[in-house]
Amino acid sequence: MDKKLIQDLYKEYNSKRDSILDQYGEKDGFIVEGKLWWNYYKELIDDNLKKIKNGSFSKEDAIAFYKIFGFGPKLYGRSFIENGIKKVNDLFLFLVDSSIPPNKKIREIVEEPESEHFFRGVGINFITLFLTTYFPNKYMQWNIQIDGALKILGLFPKRERGEGKSEFYLKINEACRNIGEMVNVKTLPIIDNFLYCLNKGYIGSDKKIAIEVKEEVIKEEVEEKETSIHTQMMYYLIKIGIAKNYDVWVAINDRNKSFNGENFNKLCLGEIPKFTQPLTLEIAKYIDVIWFKKRTANPVRFFEIEHTTSIYSGLLRLNDVKIDFPISKATIVIPKDRIDKVEKEIDRRTFKHTELSDICDYLTYEDLKKWYKAVDVDAKYS
Question: For residue 348, what are the CA distances in angstroms to 311, 318, 360?
């Protein structure tokens, strides 16, 4: 997309800025406690840094910071504080150290569990929001709204195979800084708001931005959300299995995923136990989660998560394994609104014939979350 169109879009943003703030400011988080978000959060960080440096920063301060800082729901407050107050202190000091490049901060805090700076309960959104607040002329916040706007503008960088998010962030940051140069703005939180408004459709509707590009952005956002939910459910199954003292296998194509700051390949088996013949084992490797009795090749329970994909395909994969191995328990994990669908599919004659329908049940997301919380609480206090 050409420079003039970006400049025109920014002029439109400036002309509508006050009305956008009036209409969406508090709802979308542009305004917090009557202040522009980057000013408010900078004061919040500075106040806590003073306490850290004079030794008065407390657990209550850390909890309050986590509840206030950032946009959207706060999902991992307990994980955040369970790192311990010293780790929270170190997190602040590590993030405000200007000598450390942003990709190193992201990599060590989020992607490397063995790092001394690895921190449960925060992700790239948290880190880049902190960075753009504290270094507003150097670093950009990175989230789904920024991705969407860059795709609309045709400026979304190419991600190389195997490139980690910490390295890819440098490309995102550079693309946003280039936009800032085009419109002669050095304060990147302003560019953040500009791009947010573009992706949300608050500006740009009368410009020649291809409809199919916007539709593709929306499609990718939906797919990313669905992928995130699938990963979250896998995480719950993994953690429940571990708490019940099982070895856990996660699908071979999902081994590199992570959730809540924990990498699946660190939590799960490196190789699937050889519980059946090689051809059947190749199918089993792609089942979402399997629990095994500790240090054995005896599977206890098989799980397939079906968010929007065909329930039939998950059942068929389980059925293919059951033909050669006597599965004793299998479960389809689904949103509540798919109960009728799974009941209809499991009632097929082919699954009755193989007796898969006798050993296969379903578990809703809501019940899985309750199970995870119950097991987590039990493990903590037992």
Answer: 12, 14, 13
∠ Cα 201 205 211 (to 5°):
90
Contacts of range 232-236, beta carbons closer than 8 Å, 24 or more positions apart? 232/259, 233/305, 233/307, 233/333, 233/365, 233/368, 234/259, 234/264, 234/288, 234/289, 234/305, 235/259, 235/260, 235/262, 235/264, 236/368, 236/369, 236/371, 236/372
The tally of domains found in the chain comes to 2
Q: What is the pLDDT of residues 304-317, one digit of tens each?
A: 998 766 788 889 99
Same domain, 118 and 248: no
> Distance between CA 14 and CA 196 in Å, rounded?
13
Q: pLDDT digits over 52-106, tens only?
A: 999 999 999 999 999 899 876 666 677 788 889 999 999 999 999 999 999 999 9
160, 293: one domain:
no
Pair 283, 317: CB distance under 8 Å? yes
Backbone angles phi, psi at 98, to 5 degrees: -70, -15
Cα→Cα distances 61→49, 96, 341, Å: 11, 18, 47
335 Cβ neighbours under 8 A, 6+ residues apart: 307, 364, 365
Burial class (CB in 10 A: 0-12, 13-18, 19+), 1: middle
Cα(83)–Cα(273) distance, rounded to whole angstroms?
33
Q: Do 50 and 173 have their domain in common?
A: yes
pTM of the complete model: 0.58
Return the structure tokens found at 133: 């607040």
Number of Cα atoms under 13 Å in the Cβ half of residue 203? 25
Is residue 313 one of the residues assigned to a domain?
yes
What is the enclosing helix (H) or strand (E) of 262? strand 262-263
190 lies in the same domain as 42? yes
Residues 56 and 178 placed together within one structural domain of the fold: yes
| CA angle centred on 331, ends 326 and 332, rounded to 5° | 130
The verdict on 50 and 178 lying in the same domain is yes
Q: Are 149 and 195 in contact (CB under 8 A)?
A: yes
Quote the domain boundaries for residue 10.
3-209
